[in-house]
């Protein structure tokens, strides 16, 4: 590996204070042990002076202050006992960023070693407890060298055992004595600051110095490759980092897509926990009970399990604020109306994060709206200003990156009745397996007299027996699961360049101009998708997949995409050909044909919004007109949207009801398309009656044909000759 123009073959890590935040714990236990055995706690001055010293040197320092009778060896032994008891109960306090660093170094071919002043018994206990022993090829401990730090022996020994020259070894340290040891060994000392800042003359021995592990990680990322976009069937990383990710709005897109993106993370590690906020009590109960859930990819007959997931109530202000305070990244997957309701809670969460001293937060805005990120930021800022003064609010808002995104995946929720049926069936299977595992006592465990080797080890036979019982339960638990979402296979999430964390996420592709990607999706896919839903519904189909089995629907889609939308977009911006011809279009029809669990009612909802000027259908018509391209299929699609509403195929859809009311007042299509009244508190952006009169009339003619029982217009996409229309 090349790191800052130096060839690196190995990385050698100090343990206490560098990898693990144990120096503070050590101070506490030594003080307690000193009070118990000497009647007086040892001073911070002596403890700080002992950092990086061997046990012998540390003892000399302590006795120089407290006298030769100071029972340092006994105090250290008692402190070891207290420290081990704490670690066995609470775990080793691992420094943030350590797992990501170890993964990147190991997977980029470096040899790895530990060089610690601690005794081997302590070192191995800690390395195993922290689940990092697997990264290291060798371990050199303080009780195995003649001279402790600051003498260079321990680092020289580690480099020699790795068969590496010291000048090709990064040597990670936190203390003055450690730096002196690494520098004296001829290595490349990397200072990771801990409790005590080294003196300037000692600090300059460091090849590179960092305030924290995450600071070094940010530098390391520049010199190690990001992993390529994952395949759908790629496993999630095994190693868990100490980060959390949040999903505010755990619906189809949040749970069926964003959770997968966060689980893939950077391909080296994945988050300790994903926190999802949902107002669905059944969903919360099931996910929290199982501790996991599945996403089903129907076209591949593939299930992907999302674990390390916890759901909170979206109405629980304290829980939502905590999610914002502790997460590295938040996916915001709420509809526009809900964002206005949740803005105050988001603002409070950002305030709590700021007060806790946390770093910048990236908020991925998953909202099917142009400039959606700016809209969300504005709503949150307004809510925050009602809580704080303008200057303070802007200071906090500057620490949050509201990031525009484009999603290229179809996801739907499993119907409630199917969901509950899964739970009942799985629980019945679980009961059967647990009864088999526990009901017959020794029935599934080999009698101990058959295991004489185990009897020779005190207590081990009992442990193995209990573990065998547990393994049966574990197998029963593994079979428990619940599928919550049906998903398409497309992987990439497009996001505007901004927060640094996005460049590391394996499944995110950052772009400079997200508006271009939004335009492609909005016009090329979203408008087409809505037209498919309207047409399929009017033909009597329930799902997108069923509708795409009708040749009339397929022909309409192909013609409006290939002959109208694509040519207009490519003439407008030829540079978009890469995305238009590959990333979006090539898989769109195939996805639609496989969408048998994607209801037309869901895709076709809110037709009034979709028929606005500049929106997905009318915007495409306007763009094509600007380049002299006729749009009979798009206009036919607009008429389908009106007819879909007039027939109230989705009777509970308020926008369908509104379109029906507008049309029936005068029987005029213009009253619908040129509507200019209130729309969610703002003027509706309809067509202009005069300037768009010809377009309105063409759409009205399509509607007349569609409602004429003698017309063959329902077969029109099959019989329509586009070449003749262009020639005329």
From TrEMBL:
Pfam families for the chain: HAD_2 (PF13419), Mannitol_dh (PF01232), Mannitol_dh_C (PF08125)
Cross-referenced Gene3D superfamilies: HAD superfamily/HAD-like, N-(1-d-carboxylethyl)-l-norvaline Dehydrogenase, domain 2, NAD(P)-binding Rossmann-like Domain, Putative phosphatase, domain 2
UniProt keyword annotations, A-Z: Hydrolase, Oxidoreductase
Gene Ontology MF terms in the entry: hydrolase activity; oxidoreductase activity
Entries under InterPro entries matching the protein: 6-PGluconate_DH-like_C_sf, 6PGD_dom2, HAD-like_sf, HAD-SF_hydro_IA, HAD_2, HAD_sf, Mannitol_DH_C, Mannitol_DH_N
Mannitol dehydrogenase N-terminal domain ranges (all copies): 249-414
Presence of the UniProt keyword DNA damage in the record: no
Residue span, Mannitol dehydrogenase C-terminal domain: 519-646
NCBIfam families given in the database record: bifunc_MtlD (NF046057), HAD-SF-IA-v3 (TIGR01509)
Protein name, per record: HAD-superfamily hydrolase subfamily IA, variant 3
């Amino acid at each position: 590996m090349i790191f800052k123009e130096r060839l690196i073959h190995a990385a050698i890590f100090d343990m206490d204070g560098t990898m693990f935040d144990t120096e503070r714990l050590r101070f506490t236990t030594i003080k307690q042990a000193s009070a118990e055995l000497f009647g007086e706690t040892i001073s911070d001055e002596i403890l700080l002076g002992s950092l990086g010293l061997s046990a012998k040197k540390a003892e000399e320092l302590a006795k120089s202050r407290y006298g030769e009778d100071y029972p340092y060896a006994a105090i250290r032994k008692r402190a070891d006992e207290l420290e081990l008891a704490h670690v066995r109960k609470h775990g080793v306090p691992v420094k943030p960023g350590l797992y990501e660093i170890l993964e990147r170094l190991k997977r980029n071919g470096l040899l790895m070693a530990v060089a610690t002043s601690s005794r081997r018994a302590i070192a191995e206990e800690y390395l195993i407890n922290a689940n990092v022993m697997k990264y290291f090829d060798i371990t050199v401990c303080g009780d195995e060298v003649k001279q402790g730090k600051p003498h260079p022996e321990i680092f020289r020994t580690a480099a020699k055992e790795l068969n590496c020259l010291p000048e090709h070894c990064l040597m990670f340290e936190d203390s003055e004595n450690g730096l002196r040891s690494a520098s004296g060994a001829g290595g490349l000392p990397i200072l990771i600051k801990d409790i005590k800042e080294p003196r300037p003359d000692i600090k300059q021995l460091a090849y590179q110095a960092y305030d924290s592990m995450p600071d070094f990680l940010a530098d390391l990322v520049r010199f190690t490759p990001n992993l390529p976009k994952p395949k759908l069937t790629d496993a999630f990383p095994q190693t868990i980092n100490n980060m959390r990710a949040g999903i505010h709005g755990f619906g189809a897109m949040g749970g069926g897509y964003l959770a997968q993106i966060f689980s893939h993370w950077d391909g080296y590690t994945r988050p300790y926990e994903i926190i999802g906020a949902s107002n669905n009590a059944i969903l919360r109960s099931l996910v929290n009970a199982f501790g996991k859930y599945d996403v089903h990819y129907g076209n591949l007959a593939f299930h992907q399990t999302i674990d390390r997931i916890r759901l909170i109530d979206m109405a629980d202000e304290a829980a939502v604020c905590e999610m914002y305070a502790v997460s590295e990244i938040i996916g915001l997957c709420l509809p526009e109306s809900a964002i206005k309701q949740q803005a105050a809670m988001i603002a409070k969460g950002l305030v709590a994060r700021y007060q806790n001293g946390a770093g910048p937060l990236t908020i991925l805005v998953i909202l099917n709206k142009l400039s959606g990120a700016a809209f969300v930021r504005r709503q949150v800022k307004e809510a925050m200003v009602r809580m704080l003064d303008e200057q303070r609010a802007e200071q906090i808002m500057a620490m949050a990156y509201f990031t525009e995104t484009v999603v290229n995946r179809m996801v739907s929720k499993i119907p409630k009745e199917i969901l509950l049926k899964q739970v009942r069936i799985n629980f019945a299977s679980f009961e059967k397996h647990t009864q088999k595992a526990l009901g017959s006592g020794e029935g599934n465990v080999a009698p101990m007299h058959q295991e004489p080797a185990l009897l020779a080890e005190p207590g081990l036979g009992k442990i193995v027996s209990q573990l065998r019982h547990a393994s049966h339960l574990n197998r029963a638990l593994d079979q428990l699961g619940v599928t919550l979402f049906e998903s398409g296979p497309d992987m990439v999430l497009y996001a505007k360049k901004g927060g640094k964390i996005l460049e590391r996420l394996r499944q995110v592709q950052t772009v400079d101009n997200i508006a271009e990607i939004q335009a492609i999706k909005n016009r090329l896919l979203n408008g087409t998708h809505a037209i498919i839903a309207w047409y399929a519904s009017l033909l009597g189909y329930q799902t997108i997949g069923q509708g795409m089995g009708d040749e009339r629907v397929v022909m309409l889609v192909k013609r409006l995409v290939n002959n109208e939308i694509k040519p207009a977009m490519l003439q407008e911006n030829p540079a978009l050909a890469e995305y238009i011809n590959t990333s979006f279009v090539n898989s769109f029809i195939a996805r639609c044909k496989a969408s048998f669990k994607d209801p037309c009612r869901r895709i076709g909802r809110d037709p009034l919004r979709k028929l606005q000027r500049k929106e997905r259908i009318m915007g495409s018509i306007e763009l094509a007109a600007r380049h002299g391209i006729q749009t009979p299929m798009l206009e036919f699609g607009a008429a389908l949207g009106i007819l879909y509403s007039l027939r109230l195929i989705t009777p509970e859809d308020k926008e369908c009801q509104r379109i029906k009311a507008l049309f029936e007042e005068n029987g005029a299509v213009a009253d619908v398309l040129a509507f200019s009244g209130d729309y969610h508190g703002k003027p509706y952006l309809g067509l202009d009656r005069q300037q768009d009169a010809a377009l309105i009339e063409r759409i009205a003619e399509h509607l007349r044909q569609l409602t004429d029982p003698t017309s063959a217009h329902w077969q029109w996409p099959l019989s329509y000759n586009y070449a003749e229309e262009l020639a005329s």
